Each structure stands twice: as C-alpha cells, then as structure tokens.
Amino acid sequence: DSGVTQTPKHLITATGQRVTLRCSPRSGDLSVYWYQQSLDQGLQFLIQYYNGEERAKGNILERFSAQQFPDLHSELNLSSLELGDSALYFCASSVVGATEAFFGQGTRLTVV
Amino acid sequence: AQKITQTQPGMFVQEKEAVTLDCTYDTSDQSYGLFWYKQPSSGEMIFLIYQGSYDEQNATEGRYSLNFQKARKSANLVISASQLGDSAMYFCAMRRTSGTYKYIFGTGTRLKVLA
C-alpha cells in the first residue's frame, strides 16, 4: 500500500459527460501529480500541484482541469468526455526534495 | 527538454536468470534523479529503485540494481535471479531536482519471465 488513495477505482461513463477523479496523497506529501496512461502506453504527465498551487503543466487538454484543496487532496475534472479519454489515470504524491513519488492504484476510466 | 528512451518493447528471461532492461535519458540539467517503476498486470505503479545524478555508487535494492553510466546517459535496470512474479511492465523515469519536479516516463519494457 503506497498510502495514496484514488477513488473511484473504476468509472464507466458516456461520451459528453463529466467526471471527477479524487486523490488523497500520503500524509505529509505536499506535491500531487496527475498522469494519464492510455492502453499500452507510457505515462503522460498532466499536471502537478504543490500545497494548493499549480506547479507544472503537461499535455493536459482544455477539457480537463484539476485543483488541490487546503486539506491537500486533489481532484481531476474531465468534461465533454470522448472515447479517446478512456485510460488509466494515476495520482502520485511526493515530498518536495525527496526521491520517489508514490502512486495510487489508479482510476480506470472507460468512456462508451 | 528531458526525455527517457526505452528501446526494448518486450523482453523474455528464464526464471532464476538475470536480465537487463535498458534506459537512456537526455537532459541538460546537472542535478536529476532516475527511477524505475514496475507495473504488474493489476495496474498499480510500484517504485523499485532510485539513482541520483551525483551518486557515485550504483543503487541497489534487493534483487534490483541500477547500472548508472552518466557519460553515456544510461540507467539500466538489472534484475537478478528473476522470478515469475517479476513479469510486468517496467518504466524508467527521470525528475529534475530543482524547479518543477514532474516525473518524465519512458514508454516501458514488458518483461516476461519463463518457467
């Protein structure tokens, strides 16, 4: 158990809909990262938050947004969903200046 | 820009033998970290090993070791005494140690351990 909790584990929704993925980082970790992993592909960095503020942005679509709340949990909002958004979405957390990031178990999103 | 390259889409290894998974990286930073993660079929990402760019000795964690060759910009993962449970996807990753801390991942190598 990495200590990073993601909910839900599985999500099936229709095209055009909006979903929210939730992440609770490890206790004490201020940095949260979101990654997208499409089928048989590597992890694409979406966005990073540090202590509530956006720190880095990757290839995140305009239809996607994220935020980190004062209690440090983070949410990734995906709207106007398309079939191609079907993927495994990971959240990871780390202590700034530390080494490894710890990953949650991911949310598998299926858009039908 | 940082980049991680894993040129082996798939590898086979006999149980109890050692295997090396290749990883090369590109960065203009002097200070950075290199990581390996394992992703079994269940999907979770499991941290295996870390090497800092200024570490003079190769990192080791149990049966995992990282063969770090800075001049060649390579960070190969060596798994000794392979086990059936080692069958998984393996990702090499890099992170800067200043500024933004995002992790950049390679495309992965799928390892299959044969009985």
Description:
- The complex is a heterodimer of chains A (112) and B (115).
- By secondary structure, chain A is mainly β.
- Chain A is built from no helices and eleven strands.
- The radius of gyration of chain A is 13 Å and the shape is globular.
- The mean pLDDT of chain A is 92.
- Chain B is mainly beta and 115 residues long.
- In chain B, 0% of the residues lie in helices and 53% in strands.
- Chain B is built from no helices and twelve strands.
- In chain B, β10 and β11 form a beta hairpin.
- The interface between A and B is medium-sized, with 27 and 22 residues.
Distance between the termini of chain B: 41 Å
Query: How many strands in all of chain B?
Result: 12
Strand content of chain B: over 45%
User: Helix count of chain A, per DSSP?
Assistant: 0
The greatest inter-chain interface is formed by: A-B, 27 and 22 residues
The assigned structural class of chain A equals: mainly beta
Helix content of chain B: under 10%
Q: What is the averaged pLDDT score of chain A?
A: 92
Approximate shape of chain B: globular
Could you say which structural class the secondary elements and strand pairing of chain B correspond to? mainly beta
So what's the overall shape of chain A? globular
* Largest beta-sheet characterization of chain A: 7 strands, mixed
Helix content of chain A: under 10%
